[in-house]
Amino acid sequence: MKFTRISALVASAAIAPAVLLASPAFAADVKAPTVSAPDAGAKTAEEQAVADREEILRLMAADGAGSVIKERGTQAIDAGPAAMRKFLEEGQYKARFEDDRVRVAQIASVGGRSVRQAARKALNVGTPEAIKEFLEVGQFKARFDDYRVETLQIMYKGGVSVKEAGSEALNANTLDALEQFIKVGQFKARNIDNRVAVTSLINDGGPKVKAAGIKALRGTPEDVQAFLDKGQFEARKQDEADAAAAKDKEKDKDSGKKDEGKGKPEPEASKGTATGTDKGTGTVTTDAGAKPVTAVDANAQATGGSSLASTGAGSALPWAAGGTAVALAGGAGLLVAARRRRA
Fold it and tell me: pTM of the full predicted structure?
């Protein structure tokens, strides 16, 4: 009996591993051997060439891409995959450095004194780091100094409004504030000053200056500036010419009045007057002029009446004529008496 039990136990022990390995639960815990697959990140030569070409085109189309990087990028694409790979690994940096040097020279050509000095210094150093430092930092520091100097110069030549706007920009002490004043603010302030100047000229000017100034104020800032630069002087010349012509006309008018007074005939009351003398003679002024009048004529005028009326003589004339007649009678008597004495 003992041997039978022992043999059964041994048989069970021998069969147990095979039964367990064949069960589903154990099979689930055992890992099957894996087969290695190709690396998902690896690219074929054709895929790599397509990716390099797209990257080069992106660099060429980027903002600020210079002519050198565009030219050499095109050459690399035309040359093939190897040239494109070399351009991306080395050539793009050399091309960008040459483009940056060109940009530095261009900035210096339009910049102020400080910008030109900083650009010259970077170019003399000649390293990519020096060029990059100027483009990213140095040019803006130098431009700030140039803008301050330019703002002060504009304020010195400008009017009240320009000076006020320039002071505000300087007090802000930023590159943007100074640039805004130089590119925009100074022109707005100058237009205000110009309009004030035109208004003053209108108040003090003549008719032509007033008309031209009002027309300029109704126009554009350019019209106002043109009036101050040229128009006011042309209008003032016209006003001066008109004033001189009016003065000459008034002078000629006064001269004509004087000439008219000299040629005016004597009043009618002065015609036909006679003046007597102690000798019984006088003058009578008629339309034909003055002529001598004898005592006989006077007597005839006293007796005839018609001649007296034609001369327009006054009541004193008959008395003069009577006196003359008495004198003549007395003279005749004396002459007769003298002749009798002689006889």
Answer: 0.54
What lies within 8 Å, CB to CB, of 132 at 6+ separation is 100
pLDDT digits (tens, 9 = 90+) for 46-76: 899 999 999 999 999 998 889 999 999 999 9
What is the Cα Rg of the chain in Å? 65
In a domain, 242, yes or no: no
With respect to residue 335, please indicate whether it lies within any of the assigned structural domains: yes
Please report how many Cα atoms fall inside a 13 Å half-sphere around the Cα of residue 115, on the Cβ side: 21
Report pLDDT digits (tens) over 161-194. Answer: 999 999 999 999 999 999 999 999 999 999 999 9
Residue 283 backbone dihedrals phi, psi, to 5 degrees: -130, 145
Beta strands in the chain (DSSP E): 274-276, 282-286, 289-293
Look up residue 75 and give its two tokens: 């050459």
Contact 120, 142 (CB under 8 A): no
Range of the domain at 317: 276-342
Strands of the sheet with 289-293, listed across from one edge: 274-276, 282-286, 289-293
Residue 25 lies in a domain: no
Q: Would you say 115 and 146 are in contact if contact means Cβ atoms under 8 Å apart?
A: yes
Exposed / middle / buried, residue 311 (Cβ in 10 Å: 0-12, 13-18, 19+): middle
